[in-house]
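Can't paste images in this forum, so I'm doing it all in text. The chain is below; anyone willing to post the predicted structure tokens underneath?
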Amino acid sequence: PYSGRETFVPKNILVIGTMNLADRSVGLVDAALRRRFQNFEFSPDSSVLKKWLAANKLGSLAETAAERLDTLNKRLQTLLDSDRLIGHTYLMRSDLQEVGFEAVWMDDIEPLLREHLHNRPGDITDLRETFLHA
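Text version of the structure:
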């Protein structure tokens, strides 16, 4: 715009942006993007998780992983909202057999939920039990 020359985006270019609705600090930016661009929602999908685990020789964990994810997200939907559900990619790990579900909880899921439930340690404990014993 400053040069005064016309610019354009070629038709063969696809621009993909991602947003995390749980991060309220950029809410105005998110709203501006929603007004200007087409939006697609990608919710947690345990069927994608099961397929990925099976394709990566971890099919023996697929049902358990999907059940734990679904059970945890049902509780989160009740406690928080659909913008703060845990995505299936947290469990799409080639080392899941070795590290186990507890490591995924401790290293990845719990720190995120501590942000969302910062003054509710009892809920964190309950969610841990929900995830690890589903």
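The chain has five helices and no strands. The two ends are 56 Å apart (CA to CA).
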